[in-house]
Model the fold of this input.
Amino acid sequence: MKLAQRMDRLGTESAFEVLAKAKALEAQGREIVHLEIGEPDFDTPAHVVAAAQQALDKGYTHYVPAPGIPELRTAVADFLGRTNRLRTTPDRVLITPGAKPIMFFTILALCEQGDEVLYPDPGFPMYASIASFAGATPVPIPLREENGFVVDPEELRSLVTDRTKLLILNSPHNPCGSASTPEQLQAIAEIAIEHDLVVLSDEVYWALRYDGKHHSVLDLDGMAERTVLLDGWSKTFAMTGWRLGYGVFPEPLVEPVTRLMINSVSCTSAFSQYAAIAALEGPWDDVDRMLEAFRERREVIVSGLNAVPGVSCLEPGGAFYAFPNITELGAPAATLSDRLLAEAGVACLPGTSFGGYGEGHLRFSYANSIDNIQRALDAFAALVES
Done:
């Protein structure tokens, strides 16, 4: 069977491939510490689960409007205002089954052959994959360790051409754990306005910050009219399996993206949207507890990685990823990650899973217990020593 050529341009997400390899080893009786997959290891808050059960009992099992039920669109707008992130109206909020459709639909609606999409590298691999699939040219913005793994505005400016259509930002950042500063975002906003760029701001880790307020390009004047906000419930509320995301769109994109939703997913499941309301309007205690646990784990994994000879690791400002430098060990990142899994029983990802500029690094998710993190660190150190 001959596939369409566009399929050659569509990549994948390595975390799921490594997870499959790790599960296969476990099936053979091996003990594996999972630091590869990017999802909280906490249960969804009980009041959210209860809201979903109540919705099912009430018969919310049918089609709903493609953009989302009005109650949830209103709840998202209210939540963004209440948390001082964005003042918006419900008609600009679209609910999707997971946050990835926000990337897909935004790029499909805006970008075509000849357009260029600027994206962070290292960065979430779907950015370049979807841009290429749409026929556009993905252009990496190098995130350099000496710059704290954040976008350098001057380097960004040098990459903008008359074909640049879309700029993708991500903060807190996957895989590096870095977080943007107000000064950096101000400079980026000026570039976006000067060159009339649309911005896709991926803020799915916004609540997982360790050093104060979350900063967004949407904080700046003139950016709400040209920025798509991407967020969801997966990371903040430990709801990865619920597949719930949302986007806040500039008005000209609302109808085209709604059409894309109708042509692809129809709508997001009804009962889960009532659970999403409960998450936004309910208590914040579970989120605070999760963040505090991640803070403790961050200290353990960063100090442990820095104690391994030949390894250095910056302290992440957000999310739940450590991105250590392993260049002194003399092995390509993919080779070392394979050996860690096969010989040490530690599942992680090579930095190259997130782009060419990720070479010389590994990504460890510390969404696991401190005991398991320590086991992984001990196994890593033993492998290096041997």
Q: What stands out?
A: The chain has two domains: 5-43+285-385, 46-281. The first strand starts at residue 33 and ends at 34. The CA atoms of residues 327 and 360 lie 5 Å apart. The longest helix spans residues 285-306.
